[in-house]
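Thread: "does anyone have the structure for this chain?"

Original post by V.I.:
We have the sequence but no experimental structure in hand. Need at least a predicted one for the grant figures.
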Amino acid sequence: MELFEEFKNKSKTNQPAGKSTIDWAGIPDSLIEKMKENDVMPGKGIPNRIMTSGPWEPEWFESYSQQFMPNNTEFKYYNYTEVTSEVHRISKEMEKVGIKGAEQAYNLLRPYAFKKDLF
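Reply from O.Q.:
Generated one for you, C-alpha coordinates below.
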Protein backbone atom coordinates (compact mmCIF):
# COMPACT_ATOMS: atom_id res chain seq x y z
CA MET A 1 0.00 0.00 0.00
CA GLU A 2 2.93 2.34 0.59
CA LEU A 3 3.88 2.20 -3.09
CA PHE A 4 0.31 3.14 -4.09
CA GLU A 5 0.28 6.13 -1.70
CA GLU A 6 3.66 7.27 -3.03
CA PHE A 7 2.33 7.04 -6.60
CA LYS A 8 -0.80 9.03 -5.67
CA ASN A 9 1.25 11.78 -4.04
CA LYS A 10 3.70 12.07 -6.93
CA SER A 11 0.87 12.02 -9.49
CA LYS A 12 -0.82 15.17 -8.28
CA THR A 13 -0.68 18.00 -10.78
CA ASN A 14 0.10 21.62 -10.08
CA GLN A 15 -2.78 22.71 -12.31
CA PRO A 16 -4.61 25.77 -10.92
CA ALA A 17 -8.17 25.11 -9.75
CA GLY A 18 -10.84 25.79 -12.36
CA LYS A 19 -8.39 25.70 -15.28
CA SER A 20 -8.79 23.03 -17.95
CA THR A 21 -5.78 20.84 -18.69
CA ILE A 22 -6.82 20.43 -22.34
CA ASP A 23 -4.67 22.26 -24.89
CA TRP A 24 -7.37 23.49 -27.26
CA ALA A 25 -4.88 25.19 -29.63
CA GLY A 26 -4.55 22.15 -31.90
CA ILE A 27 -8.29 21.47 -32.21
CA PRO A 28 -10.11 23.06 -35.17
CA ASP A 29 -12.66 25.73 -34.21
CA SER A 30 -15.31 23.98 -36.30
CA LEU A 31 -14.95 20.82 -34.19
CA ILE A 32 -15.20 22.79 -30.95
CA GLU A 33 -18.35 24.52 -32.20
CA LYS A 34 -19.94 21.18 -33.13
CA MET A 35 -19.02 19.79 -29.71
CA LYS A 36 -20.73 22.77 -28.06
CA GLU A 37 -23.82 22.43 -30.30
CA ASN A 38 -24.14 18.74 -29.37
CA ASP A 39 -23.39 19.35 -25.67
CA VAL A 40 -20.41 16.98 -25.63
CA MET A 41 -17.68 19.25 -24.31
CA PRO A 42 -15.52 17.37 -21.81
CA GLY A 43 -15.76 18.26 -18.14
CA LYS A 44 -12.85 19.19 -15.92
CA GLY A 45 -10.79 16.42 -14.40
CA ILE A 46 -10.62 12.68 -14.76
CA PRO A 47 -13.56 10.71 -13.36
CA ASN A 48 -13.03 7.96 -10.81
CA ARG A 49 -14.11 5.27 -13.26
CA ILE A 50 -12.49 1.96 -14.12
CA MET A 51 -13.62 0.43 -17.41
CA THR A 52 -12.45 -2.89 -18.75
CA SER A 53 -13.69 -5.70 -20.97
CA GLY A 54 -13.44 -9.40 -21.63
CA PRO A 55 -15.56 -12.40 -22.59
CA TRP A 56 -17.22 -12.40 -19.13
CA GLU A 57 -16.95 -10.44 -15.88
CA PRO A 58 -14.96 -12.20 -13.16
CA GLU A 59 -16.86 -12.31 -9.86
CA TRP A 60 -13.89 -10.77 -8.01
CA PHE A 61 -13.31 -7.86 -10.44
CA GLU A 62 -14.92 -5.02 -8.47
CA SER A 63 -14.24 -6.24 -4.93
CA TYR A 64 -10.57 -6.88 -5.62
CA SER A 65 -10.02 -3.64 -7.54
CA GLN A 66 -11.84 -1.49 -4.98
CA GLN A 67 -9.13 -2.00 -2.36
CA PHE A 68 -6.72 0.01 -4.52
CA MET A 69 -9.10 2.82 -5.54
CA PRO A 70 -10.92 5.73 -3.83
CA ASN A 71 -14.28 4.85 -2.26
CA ASN A 72 -16.35 6.66 -4.89
CA THR A 73 -14.81 4.78 -7.84
CA GLU A 74 -17.29 3.47 -10.42
CA PHE A 75 -16.50 0.12 -12.05
CA LYS A 76 -17.84 -0.78 -15.49
CA TYR A 77 -17.21 -4.12 -17.13
CA TYR A 78 -18.09 -4.70 -20.80
CA ASN A 79 -18.40 -8.15 -22.33
CA TYR A 80 -17.46 -8.43 -26.01
CA THR A 81 -21.03 -7.92 -27.23
CA GLU A 82 -21.39 -4.78 -25.11
CA VAL A 83 -18.08 -3.43 -26.44
CA THR A 84 -19.29 -3.83 -30.03
CA SER A 85 -22.55 -2.07 -29.17
CA GLU A 86 -20.74 0.78 -27.38
CA VAL A 87 -18.28 1.24 -30.27
CA HIS A 88 -21.24 1.60 -32.63
CA ARG A 89 -22.96 4.11 -30.30
CA ILE A 90 -19.79 6.15 -29.72
CA SER A 91 -19.04 6.19 -33.46
CA LYS A 92 -22.52 7.63 -34.15
CA GLU A 93 -21.94 10.33 -31.53
CA MET A 94 -18.56 11.19 -33.07
CA GLU A 95 -20.16 11.50 -36.51
CA LYS A 96 -22.44 14.22 -35.11
CA VAL A 97 -19.38 16.42 -34.60
CA GLY A 98 -17.76 15.51 -37.92
CA ILE A 99 -15.46 12.66 -36.91
CA LYS A 100 -16.17 9.78 -39.26
CA GLY A 101 -14.84 6.23 -39.45
CA ALA A 102 -14.27 5.37 -35.79
CA GLU A 103 -16.26 2.14 -35.95
CA GLN A 104 -14.61 1.17 -39.22
CA ALA A 105 -11.15 1.78 -37.72
CA TYR A 106 -12.09 -0.35 -34.72
CA ASN A 107 -13.31 -3.17 -36.95
CA LEU A 108 -10.14 -3.08 -39.08
CA LEU A 109 -8.01 -3.99 -36.07
CA ARG A 110 -7.46 -7.75 -35.83
CA PRO A 111 -6.04 -8.65 -32.39
CA TYR A 112 -8.68 -8.04 -29.74
CA ALA A 113 -6.05 -6.47 -27.46
CA PHE A 114 -5.58 -3.67 -30.02
CA LYS A 115 -9.34 -3.19 -30.25
CA LYS A 116 -9.58 -3.00 -26.48
CA ASP A 117 -6.89 -0.30 -26.42
CA LEU A 118 -8.79 1.78 -28.98
CA PHE A 119 -12.06 1.30 -27.08
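V.I.: this helps a lot. The helical segments are 2-11, 29-37, 61-66, 80-96, 102-108, 112-118.
O.Q.: and The beta strands are 49-54, 74-79.
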